[in-house]
Amino acid sequence: MRQRSLIAITAALAAGALTLTACGSRDDSAGSDSEGSGGGTTVVIGVDAPLTGDLSALGLGIKNSVDLAAKTANKEKTVDGVTFKVEALDDQAQPSSGQQNATKFVANKDVLGVVGPLNSSVAESMQKVFDDAKLVEVSPANTNPALTQGTDWQKTKTRPYKSYFRTATTDAIQGPFAAQYVFNDAKKKKVFVIDDKKTYGAGLAATFTEEFKKLGGKIAGTEHINPDTKDFSAIATKVKNSGADVVYYGGEYPQAGPLSKQIKAAGAKIPVVGGDGIYSADFIKLAGASGTGDLATSVGAPVEELPSAKEFVANYKAAGYKEAFEAYGGYSYDSAWAIIEAVKKVVEDNDGKLPSDARAKVTAAMQNVSFDGVTGKVSFDEYGDATNKQLTVYAVENGAWKAVKSGTYTG
After folding, report:
1. Cβ atoms of 179 and 212 closer than 8 Å
2. Cis status, amide bond into 117, omega within 30 of 0
3. Rg of the Cα trace of the chain?
4. Could you tell me if residue 215 is left (phi over 0), alpha (psi between -120 and 50 degrees) or otherwise beta?
5. What percent of the chain has pLDDT over 70?
């Protein structure tokens, strides 16, 4: 990714010279479609994420970050003759909605790539729709290994869909990384494992459990919750009576926050640990003061601390988005930029024009995309997985998430 001028980008944003064709937080439609942009051909980058509902904080951070990438590409004329626009659709974290959105994106001939979704369960419903249309999809957040390596990934890895890529690492790494930290660093030896029965949560809890047992830890108990439930008092009592010194939760922050609060209220003054699905400021709001000491793993290094991300953080702030970029902002920007780079390659290989089979060509080009992104080096392995395997453990301290350890899984 080329270095970009913060002053120039900010000025363009303020002038409304760059456009967004989607429902969103900001309305920049006053500017001309081509003013300060790449040119006459329009390429739409789709965004699928939960833009309303419990997980909207993460989804809006994804949408805004893709918007910023498109505006940056237009300002810099990254792809000569091409103007990028964004169309964002709300999946409400529901697989059925995601599948409907995938069909809508496929029907729009200008869509040459889609960023999203947030949830692995939603991705499962979208992959075949995109693959049949040879439309590339790059997720900044999906972590379930089966999406890229097949349902039998622990025995034999087989890539099910060549149009699917992701910039986030997988739970095959995230779960064990958390287990190593909990057992070796936090010195917790007896865990109560809870999951929400969804693709992401159950898969993450399973990889954590396997590694924790391998290290010598004991499983004090297991439970599954209904994601629609807010009353966890019965499970909280089980946790207290189990003698566990830590809880691992596979799921997302709307349930994790109240769960943590109720576990402490039941008398179990032990930390709740989760994956990137709970790494949100909203978890802290929901958990309240009792959430202090709770832990979360998340993909990559802390964006705010990466030299490569300073410009992204500054530009995002200058753009005036109402919502924070949250856990996946940097990965969303890099996912969008990967699509932009693939489009650039296809256009350059076709004498400066989009070919008639642009979707198939962009999907093929994505496999060899490689650039220095917000989150570090961005490239993909033979399964479409990110080659960047770094993870970070965060702890709730003084009402905010604080990075306590970064590294890679050493299994």
Report:
1. yes
2. yes
3. 21
4. alpha
5. 90
Q: In whole angstroms, how far apart are CA 314 and each of 214, 309, 331?
A: 43, 9, 16
| Beta-ladder partners of 186 | none
Kindly state the average pLDDT of the residues 278-282.
94
Q: Which residues of 46-66 are buried (b: 16+ CB within 10 A; e: fewer)?
A: bbbbbbeebbbbbbbbbbbbb
CA 161, 372, 105, 203 torsion-angle sign: positive
Whole-model pTM?
A: 0.83
Of 47, 40, 21, 5, nearest to 141 (Cα)? 47
99/131 Cα distance (integer angstroms): 12
The one-letter amino acid at 86: V
Q: What is the mean pLDDT of residues 208-227?
A: 97
Structure tokens at 323: 């919502």
Residue 56, Cα to own-chain centre: how many angstroms? 13
* Environment class of 107 (CB within 10 Å of its CB; exposed 0-12, middle 13-18, buried 19+): exposed
Q: Quick count: other Cβ atoms within 10 Å of Cβ 374?
A: 28
The residues near 340 (Cβ < 8 Å, ≥ 6 apart) are 45, 69, 70, 73, 78, 79, 84
The 10 Å CB-count burial string (b at 16+, else e) for 258-287 is bbbbbbbebebebbbbbbbbbbbebbbebb
- What phi and psi values does residue 162 have, to the nearest 5 degrees? -80, -5
143 DSSP 8-state letter:
-
Taking 3-state DSSP, the helix, strand and coil percentages for the chain, each rounded to the nearest 5, stand at 40, 20, 40
Element (H, E) at 397: strand 391-397
Residue 37's pLDDT band, with cuts at 50, 70 and 90, is very low
Based on DSSP, count helices (H) and strands (E) in the chain, helices before strands: 13, 14
At residue 152, the 3 state secondary structure works out as coil
Cβ–Cβ < 8 Å for 111, 58: no
Residue 102's pLDDT band, with cuts at 50, 70 and 90, is very high
